[in-house]
Design goal:
262 residues, alpha/beta, seven-stranded mixed sheet, 16 strands, 27% strand
């Protein structure tokens, strides 16, 4: 059976692959998903807006979905605001900004010192909403489902689906069955690999090693694993070797601007 043409499939572009301490020349967590003209950004960490502009216009995304309210996953909402307010626009619509439960109050506290200017409130460029992690979002032709991950604050893995193809993003998580269940039979599992092999996370845990990412992918029967959210100290060979010890499928290590068609 032949695959559908590329324009009728889900496409993932990495706009940021670093952990909270960005690798030189790389951005923090951000993933650009597009299908049939619908464009969705999963997280928008530090430096991601500059990368994203190589793949879409400032006002290109239909929606931005934030997994959790740690700065390395949402801080570039600030420079994106300036781009939407003062940059060249191709449309007058506002992108929908989906935040996790209670995320709006925290974001407003972050931007409160520069909350207004002559053109209105700082966040008026977005259509602000909080998503229900128990529900399903529909953005154009893309649907998104969630699962609570295992992190230091409430954080949510996401699964984006279109026309039978899917990409699942772990967000920040220690090994977690709910994330595995969400990623079941996914075409691409983007999983964090923050911890080095010798590192131990404090309890309650909030991050994974590449080996543990491989275990989650294997248990989920994910067809492809993309290791991400790693620091400068971790080499590609180390990440691949660790994950390969527990995962038998197609394995990749994320880098900014990498694109994959599902």
């Amino acid at each position: 059976m032949s695959e559908p043409p590329a324009e009728d499939r889900l496409r993932l572009t990495v706009a940021g692959s670093s952990n909270a301490v960005a690798r030189p020349g790389r951005a923090c967590s951000s993933y650009f998903v597009e299908a049939a003209g619908t464009k969705v950004v999963l997280d928008l960490g530090s430096g991601a807006v500059g990368n994203l502009r190589r793949h879409t216009s400032m006002d290109g995304p239909d929606a931005i979905i934030i997994s959790h309210m740690h700065p390395d996953h949402f801080l570039d909402l600030v420079p994106l605001r300036y781009g939407l307010r003062y940059g060249a626009r191709t449309t007058n619509r506002r992108p929908v900004l989906y935040l996790p439960p209670d995320g709006e109050a925290l974001l407003r506290r972050v931007v409160d010192p520069f909350a207004t200017d002559d053109n209105g409130h700082f966040l008026d460029v977005y259509e602000l909403r909080e998503y229900d992690p128990e529900g399903t979002l529909t953005v154009g032709d893309i649907t998104v489902r969630f699962a609570l991950s295992k992190h230091y604050i409430p954080a949510f893995a996401m699964r984006a689906e279109y026309n039978g193809s899917s990409v699942t993003y772990s967000a920040d998580t220690a090994p977690e069955q709910r994330v595995v269940d969400l990623a079941k039979d996914t075409g691409l599992f983007i999983c964090e690999a923050t911890l080095r092999p010798h590192q131990r996370d404090a309890e309650p845990r909030g991050h994974s090693t590449a080996r543990e990412a491989g275990e989650m992918a294997q248990h989920a029967d994910a067809r492809r694993l993309l290791l991400s959210h790693y620091g400068s100290e971790a080499s590609r060979d180390e990440l691949e070797s660790e994950a390969r010890s527990t995962y038998q499928g197609d394995l990749l290590v994320a880098d900014d601007h990498m694109s994959i068609t599902l």
